[in-house]
Amino acid sequence: MSIAITRSPMATAAPVASVVPVLARQEARRLVRHPFMLFGFALFIATTGGSLIADTSATTAFSLVDSFPSFYPGVFTILAGGLVASRDHRAGSDELVAPLPGRAFERVLALCVASVAPALLTLGLILLLHAAYVLQGVYVETPNVWHLTQGPVTVLGGCLFGIMVGTWAPTRSAVLFALVLMVAANLWVNGDEGPQNLFGLSIGWGEWGSPDGRVWGGLAPGSPMGHVFYLLGLCGMAASAALLRVADRRTPVIVAGFLSVVVAVTGGIGQLP
Amino acid sequence: MTSHTTVRAEGIVKAYGRQRALDGFDLAATTGVTGLLGPNGAGKTTLLRILATVLAADEGSLRILEQDPLEPEGRRHIRRRLGYLPQDAGFHRGFTAFEAVDYVAVLKEHTKARARHDEVRRVLDLVGLSGVAGKKVRALSGGMRQRLGLAQALLGRPQLLVLDEPTVGLDPEQRMRFRDLVSEAGHGRTVILSTHQTEDVAAVCSQVVVVNRGRALFTGGVDELVKLAEGRVWVDSDRDPRALAGWRLGAHRYHHIGDPPAGAELVEPGVEDAYLLLVGPQAATSDGADQERDAA
Lengths: 273, 296
Fold this sequence. Notes:
The complex is a heterodimer of chains A (273) and B (296). Chain A is mostly helical and 273 residues long. Helices cover 67% and strands 3% of the residues of chain A. Chain A has 13 helices and two strands; from the N terminus they run αααααααααααββαα. Chain A has helices at 20-32, 35-53, 58-66, 68-71, 74-85, 87-90, 94-97, 104-114, 116-136, 145-168, 172-191, 224-244, 251-270; strands spanning 206-208, 216-219. In chain A, strands 1-2 form a two-stranded antiparallel sheet. In chain A, β1 and β2 (216-219) form a beta hairpin. Chain A starts with 19 loop residues before the first helix and ends with a helix. The relative contact order of chain A is 0.14. In chain B, the strands form three sheets. In chain B, strands 5-6-7-3-8-9 form a six-stranded mixed β-sheet, with helices on both faces. Chain B contains ten helices and 13 strands. Chain B has helices spanning 44-51, 72-79, 97-107, 113-126, 142-154, 172-185, 198-204, 222-227, 271-279, 291-295; strands spanning 7-16, 19-29, 32-37, 59-64, 82-85, 160-164, 190-195, 207-212, 215-220, 233-236, 245-250, 253-257, 265-266. In chain B, β6 (160-164), α6 and β7 (190-195) form a beta-alpha-beta unit. The chains are: A mainly alpha (273), B alpha/beta (296). At the A-B interface, α1, α6 and α7 of A face β1, β4, α2, β5 and α3 of B.
């Protein structure tokens, strides 16, 4: 006799052994060694390394430690994150990995955790650069912890944004399109004079006192701490959106996403002068 | 049924739109190798995807490893004891063979690095890929990639191995090796494989299920299947138009299946003869699109 089975989503209990830490370590290595990521870091090192040799102004030095990492390696982390997240689909592995105990949720969660690695590497490079500038006496005003962490947080956000795109639209073209869209949106927001440019992702806090930046123009108005929290909120939103695609239980992810929105809005308002 | 039944399926139905890929499929598989034999679009891949917990059946009763695959806990239990080789197993081309299998091993909860690496080396050795463990997937031949797929399925000595067309792309020597591997794997565990190759079925399967149009037409041993064709296979010097199917063997020799004419020169039947008698001659000439996969 045939017994009717009701249709149900293929939700599966979490794996017994926690695969996330192991997978996160592996994915962190893959992210950091990704060709796009290496290229981004190479550009960062080449540019900032040159600044240590050349006669660097205080304004340039300040921008190299706070906003420059958003471009290099920041932009390239979007590509690396997106391509790593879409790897299984592009390779035709979906069917192969679908029935494994480590589910799509664990895989995406591990990738989100792994995104911290390029951010930490960026932080390490920034701290080295910062120490060199301090020793050289370049700064007029020394960047604080929020100025220094802004770059690594944008790298984290770029990677998470790439992972989000790669999870929802796992194709190369989608990742590339998202990158172009993100850069264009950021240029549009930053292009405006006024406090609203603080909603951009690449904020230079050192004001230019002269066209060549030789003269230190002081710090831009606004709260760098609020800006970092705004960026962290965006990071949480990207991670939540990525996890929402693969979560069997969506409520905790939606709650995490909502909290991220609250952090982003609070930080966004708090950063304004 | 005894408690050794690894898979017990009754009345399984799976439809894609209005097309039923499985239409009341019954299967009981125990320890040993069960071969699914059927033409394109018969429902083999859909059945294997359901057994691998990739798909859920629309109707019917299914127990795998004494668990209900529709229950989250049950599905986890099954997945921890399952090895699955899908029909088109892809690996990231930038991974080395070792990395590709290691990635799957982590997802199979092999979290201790040293033990995991030992296990990856073991399965690569089993399929004869130890020598190319450090090579990128993009540099491997089609046959090597197929063996890589088999290697990941063998990780952790699963109790249930589900293999979809595992011999595709293998050369004759690799196929012999594969048969050895599957026969060995069938000792003490259950292997369910689908294939178009009747030679594979004859060589390794303890049970054969002939599938057509989403139903099991025959379930039994290889000998029982062959017996169905006894007295219904003959050879002649000309093609016999009354035969259900016939093909040329060599110079002026034609092999026929069907109802032989009086005085026909009967010959010993094979698995292929019995299979064709069951599913009809269209299976021998089936070159149409795989309806099942198209529908999926």
